[in-house]
């Protein structure tokens, strides 16, 4: 601690936000940092790291005070980094999320080791939430205890003696309502003081002293373990086998010592936890007076929402409503975005005139970008609903209701969250699986989640369904709309059945848990919902935008240029054809365009894979689209736009109309007949066409094995099913 | 309705309430303790999950979803 004060602050001070799940920690984080958040990953692990900057008013003491002079106080603003650690129940982690907290808080040499901890506890659950608090306090970290949900103190008649709590726990205690934004200024002052003067906040005595067996191990290991105090050493002794900052040699020593002294980790944990409860429970009883029973509303709501029969029915109704709203509400903003990009393209073409740069900008960049940005309304709406369901506490209920079904398929109740989120985007869905403690259940969820129809498939479905299903309707149900719903069901059914297949293949001796907290229903904090939607949309635009922009440009290049000589040969051939057949200018231009595409690099690639995809009913042009879709499936529409627009004289036609005009030269039939369209649809439902998801699977599973298995499995499934569909329908 | 003397919570019926005595499985005990289920807590069985095998329980005032095997390691006095 002293060394920190002497050396000039080489790094920004780090403040860690720690607390139990459902303590309102993220609400407080959003309140403190607003949109000034950065989402990254914790180094070496896959858990999402949220950090942000916090400005603290500060009395800065200039360098030179060390010699004892009283220097002038300089009032200024100090910026600190605030890290939102994942929610954890104790220092004995069961999930990846919790492991990370222990990993970073026991590693004083790490970059993320906090200079101070803001410990967030739900004021209505202090009797549970103080367990982790006392553990971290014993690690000798400067701490402030935040009593979140202070708005409930008045509402429910809860009475908390803050001063007394503070003096008995020997830390500053600040009541905060992240919902109403009260108490934040006071909290900032306390944080500033904590950082300025950490020595004043060091604990005088620990809450817990290790038992006899543990003491033997500790006295032997204190010399080799890089521990700050006894409790720190105890945690290292418990967790040495997986903590990344413990060298291999030390791990062996720890193991030997544990065996020698008969140190039983589980038993020691249970003893410690019981003792801690015994220590802080009287403090809570002494300082908190409970008012009326505030969870009676939750009880009433849950009587209906988690009812044995009505519960699942209501769930289905909510999901149907969600997807209905998704399509109904997103229709006109999507039309608007499309219109903007079409006008932009036409405008640019009119200003720049014909030429290769115009083609690149209009057909490559603008068409590609438009193809991505058109998803924004749907992604925003989907994440809005998912964030809302999470905020009010419904997702935990869904996990409870479907746990037993999920278990039959080798999954966990918590997988429901991933499978719902997967309909927005597989990436956050896969990241949400880290709350599943059982590795096999988590792995299965990761493997099958990409089979659910994510929002990137929507535009592909929209275009192809118009060829697959006639535009008829019976009453309120349109055939195309039903087909759409059918594709979603196909995706989720495939996901469940695949999970079942993997369950039978994979063996795991690990125990599986549910043990799920069902938090009280709360009206949503709109700020949190807004921040989530904003962040997901931003990530989507940036990440998907980069890939799609790159691919559009590359694809445009590949389809405009060809091997030397081939393009010229195509041109000469077209010229002679024009002369012999007496074609007019328009026909000549179209013929030239299609011959040149065939002669281009893209045409060569398409031709090369054509034999493999002919049984599925695809020609080489679809081959080009498939090939580029493996980077990101949403590229399909842009690719179609590029393939069918190059060289053509009429830019007014929509992609769909151009595709409808396409004739198969061998059969003389339209290329996009029912069989081909259905075959393509099925292919896009099943195929793993998203590099970003593959990358996330690799990160989350820690190697190439599972992403490769996932990719192969899904692609084979897509290929075989599409072939069957085509052969049956044609 | 009181439980008979020290039985496992898996022998529940809906509406039963009792005080937790101890746990029979150390592995599960560690996790249960972490989420605030501990000897002395009052446990009541509220309802069964729609497709069976899980239970909606209340520990003191907090709601929790537990599987049948998880309840089976909790002894009630």
Automatic annotation (TrEMBL), chain A:
It is found in: Cell inner membrane; Cell membrane. It comes from the Bacteria. Its main location: membrane. It is a multi-pass membrane protein. Keywords: Cell membrane, GTP-binding, Ion transport, Iron, Iron transport, Membrane, Nucleotide-binding, Transmembrane, Transmembrane helix, Transport. The chain crosses the membrane at residues 309-332, 365-389, 443-469, 481-506, 624-646, 675-696, 708-729. Residues 12-197 form the FeoB-type G domain. InterPro entries: Fe2_transport_prot-B, Fe2_transport_prot_B_C, FeoB_GTPase, G_FEOB_dom, Gate_dom, GTP-bd, P-loop_NTPase. Probable transporter of a GTP-driven Fe(2+) uptake system. Belongs to the TRAFAC class TrmE-Era-EngA-EngB-Septin-like GTPase superfamily. FeoB GTPase (TC 9.A.8) family. This is Ferrous iron transport protein B. It comes from Neolewinella antarctica.
From TrEMBL, chain B:
Transmembrane segments: none annotated. Pfam families: FeoA. InterPro entries: Fe-transptr_FeoA-like, FeoA_core_dom, Transcriptional_repressor_C. Coiled coil: none annotated. Residues 7-77 form the Ferrous iron transporter FeoA-like domain. The keyword Heme does not apply. The keyword Iron applies. This is Ferrous iron transport protein A. It comes from Neolewinella antarctica.
């Amino acid at each position: 601690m002293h060394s920190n004060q002497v050396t000039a602050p080489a790094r920004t001070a780090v403040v860690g936000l720690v607390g139990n799940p459902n303590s309102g920690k993220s609400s407080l984080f959003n309140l403190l940092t607003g949109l000034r958040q950065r989402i990254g990953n914790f180094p070496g692990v896959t858990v999402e790291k949220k950090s942000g900057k916090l400005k603290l008013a500060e009395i800065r003491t200039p360098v030179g005070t060390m010699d004892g002079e009283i220097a002038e106080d300089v009032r200024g603003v100090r910026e600190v980094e605030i890290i939102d650690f994942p929610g954890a129940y104790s220092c004995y982690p069961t999930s990846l999320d919790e492991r990370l907290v222990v990993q970073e808080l026991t590693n004083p040499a790490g970059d993320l080791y906090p200079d101070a901890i803001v410990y967030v506890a739900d004021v209505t659950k202090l009797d549970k939430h103080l367990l982790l608090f006392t553990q971290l306090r014993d690690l000798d970290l400067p701490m402030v205890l935040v009593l979140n949900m202070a708005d409930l103190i008045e509402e429910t008649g809860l009475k908390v003696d803050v001063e007394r709590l503070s003096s008995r726990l020997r830390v500053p205690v600040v009541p905060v309502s992240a919902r109403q934004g009260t108490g934040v200024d006071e909290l900032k002052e306390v944080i500033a003081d904590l950082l300025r003067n950490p020595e004043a906040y060091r604990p005088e005595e620990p809450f817990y002293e290790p038992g006899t067996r543990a003491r033997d191990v500790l006295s032997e290991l204190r010399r080799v373990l890089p521990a700050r105090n006894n409790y720190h050493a105890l945690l290292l002794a418990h967790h040495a086998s997986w903590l990344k900052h413990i060298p291999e040699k030390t791990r062996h020593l720890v193991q030997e010592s544990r065996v020698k002294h008969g140190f039983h980790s589980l038993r020691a944990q249970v003893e410690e936890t019981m003792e801690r409860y015994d220590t802080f429970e009287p403090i809570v009883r002494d300082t908190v007076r409970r008012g009326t029973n505030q969870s009676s509303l939750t009880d009433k709501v849950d009587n209906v929402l988690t009812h044995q029969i009505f519960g699942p029915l209501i769930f289905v109704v909510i999901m149907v409503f969600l997807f209905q709203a998704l399509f109904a509400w997103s229709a006109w903003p999507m039309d608007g975005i499309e219109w903007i990009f079409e006008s932009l393209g036409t405008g640019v073409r009119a200003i720049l005139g014909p030429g290769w740069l115009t083609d690149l900008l209009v057909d490559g960049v603008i068409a590609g970008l438009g193809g991505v940005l058109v998803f924004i309304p749907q992604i925003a709406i989907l994440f809005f609903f998912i964030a809302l369901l999470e905020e009010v506490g419904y997702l935990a209920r869904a996990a409870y209701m479907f746990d037993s079904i999920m278990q039959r398929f080798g999954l966990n109740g918590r997988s429901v969250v991933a499978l719902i989120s997967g309909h927005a985007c597989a990436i956050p869905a896969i990241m949400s699986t880290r709350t599943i403690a059982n590795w096999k259940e988590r792995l299965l969820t990761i493997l099958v989640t990409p089979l659910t129809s994510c929002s990137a498939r929507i535009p592909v479905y929209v275009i192809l369904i118009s060829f697959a299903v006639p535009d008829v309707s019976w009453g309120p149900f349109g055939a195309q709309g039903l087909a759409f719903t059918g594709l979603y069901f196909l995706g989720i059914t495939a996901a469940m059945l695949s999970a079942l297949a993997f369950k039978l293949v994979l063996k795991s001796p690990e125990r599986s848990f549910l043990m799920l907290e069902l938090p009280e229903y709360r009206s949503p904090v709109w700020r949190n919902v807004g921040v989530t939607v904003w962040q997901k949309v931003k990530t989507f635009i940036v990440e998907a935008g980069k890939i799609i922009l790159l691919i559009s440009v590359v694809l445009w290049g590949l389809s405009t240029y060809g091997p030397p000589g081939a393009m010229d040969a195509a041109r000469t051939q077209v010229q002679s054809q024009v002369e012999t057949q007496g074609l007019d200018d328009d026909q000549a231009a179209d013929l030239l365009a299609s011959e040149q595409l065939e002669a281009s690099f893209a045409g060569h690639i398409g031709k090369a894979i054509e034999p493999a995809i002919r049984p599925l009913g695809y020609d080489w042009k679809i081959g080009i689209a498939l090939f580029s879709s493996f980077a990101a499936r949403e590229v399909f529409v842009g690719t179609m736009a590029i393939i069918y627009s190059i060289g053509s004289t009429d830019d007014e036609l929509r992609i769909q109309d151009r595709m409808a005009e396409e004739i198969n030269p061998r059969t003389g039939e339209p290329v996009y007949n029912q069989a081909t369209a259905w075959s393509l649809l099925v292919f896009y439902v099943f195929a793993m066409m998203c590099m970003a998801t593959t990358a996330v699977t690799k990160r989350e599973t820690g190697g190439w094995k599972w992403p490769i298995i996932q990719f192969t499995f899904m692609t084979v499934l897509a290929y075989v099913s599409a072939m069957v569909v085509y052969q049956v329908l044609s | 309705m009181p439980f008979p003397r020290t039985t496992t919570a898996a022998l529940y019926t809906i509406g039963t309430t009792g005080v937790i005595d101890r746990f029979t499985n150390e592995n599960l005990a560690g996790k249960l303790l972490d989420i605030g289920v501990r000897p002395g807590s009052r446990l009541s069985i509220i309802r069964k999950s729609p497709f069976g095998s899980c239970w909606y329980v209340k520990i003191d005032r907090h709601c929790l979803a537990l599987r049948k095997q998880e309840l089976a390691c909790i002894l009630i006095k």
